[in-house]
Write a structure and sequence with these properties.
Radius of gyration: 18 Å
Distance between the termini: 23 Å
CATH architecture: Alpha-Beta Barrel
Number of domains: 1
Order of helices and strands: HHEEHEHEHEHEHEEHHEEH
Structural class: alpha/beta
CATH topology: TIM Barrel
Shape: globular
Oligomer: single chain
Number of strands: 10
Strand order of the largest sheet: 1-2-3-4-5-6-7-9
Length: 286
């Protein structure tokens, strides 16, 4: 199975696309939505909306086996202790899954009945996966064989570019091989983030960064800050794919080669993967 870093634009000379994917709230194989076949990777989210959904590791294996996708699975520190997380990672390796994204997970709200765990911070989970790759578990004991994960991490430039740059540098130092961002609408943020990372680490970023491009619908949901011009264009009948292509063109002009595609989220929780497929087709010039 391909690793994310092997398909990045730095490795191949062409744009690479990771498409976000929400596992279904059903364990029936027929309820698994068809992902965009033209994405380089399909990234199985970890319980989006804090809802009971198919486990991201199992979902990644199903996406590969049922749809021939190259999958990524996400793990959050929120719900499992370090024993459970590292055991699940060994299970993912046994299933032939090589790409993982480590996140903290959205905090529970007052109406949630589950209890947070947070035995690791996200940066600590990245370091733990890197240790598994070196053949050592959280107790310092040697595994019978090391894992071989390609490790991803997340940043959200909407929380402050300087802050996120410092966090990104720490995540890379802990073992992250690539980064993905939440949707970015201002191409000038690319240079600002790169400069902030250089100030934080003393050198240029050395890992691929997949900048988020969010596809919107007039009645859709977004968890990122959406500029007024996007809202206005949608209200005037412009398609979300057209808007996303304008954003992507700006990112490309700023020197970006890799894209994290966020399909539209409808108020029902369903995702519009057809819109993502159209965007990737047009963005890649297919």
């Amino acid at each position: 199975m391909a690793k994310v870093t092997d398909r990045s634009s730095a490795a191949t000379g062409r744009p690479a696309f990771i498409c976000d994917y929400s596992p279904p709230r059903s364990g029936r194989p027929e309820d698994v939505p068809t992902p965009p076949a033209n994405a380089d990777f399909i990234s199985a989210a970890y319980n989006p909306g804090q809802a009971v959904r198919v486990n991201s590791v199992a979902m990644a294996a199903a996406l590969r086996d049922q749809h021939g996708a190259d999958p990524i699975f996400t793990l959050a520190t929120r719900d499992m202790n370090r024993l459970a997380l590292e055991s699940l990672l060994l299970g993912a390796q046994a299933l032939g899954l090589d790409n993982v994204i480590a996140v903290a997970g959205d905090p529970f709200g007052p109406r949630d009945t589950a209890m947070p765990v947070n035995d690791y911070r996200a940066t600590e989970l990245i370091a733990a996966v890197a240790n598994l790759n070196d053949g050592v578990d959280h107790r310092g004991r040697s595994l019978r064989a090391p894992t071989d994960f390609c490790i991803g991490a997340t940043v959200d430039l909407g929380r402050g570019i300087e802050r996120e740059a410092r966090l990104a540098v720490r995540k890379i130092a802990s073992g992250a091989h690539f980064l993905i961002t939440q949707p970015v609408f201002d191409p000038d943020d690319v240079g600002r983030f790169a400069d902030a990372c250089a100030r934080a680490s003393g050198e240029a970023l050395a890992v691929p960064v997949f900048y988020g491009v969010g596809l919107m619908e007039p009645d859709g949901v977004s968890f990122a800050s959406v500029p007024q011009w996007v809202t206005d264009d949608l209200a005037n009948g412009r398609s979300g794919a057209d808007i996303a292509l304008e954003v992507w063109a700006g990112l490309r002009a700023a020197g970006i080669g890799d894209c994290y595609v966020v399909p539209p989220i409808r108020r029902s929780g369903a995702r519009n993967y057809a819109a993502a497929r159209e965007f990737i087709q047009r963005a890649a010039g297919e």
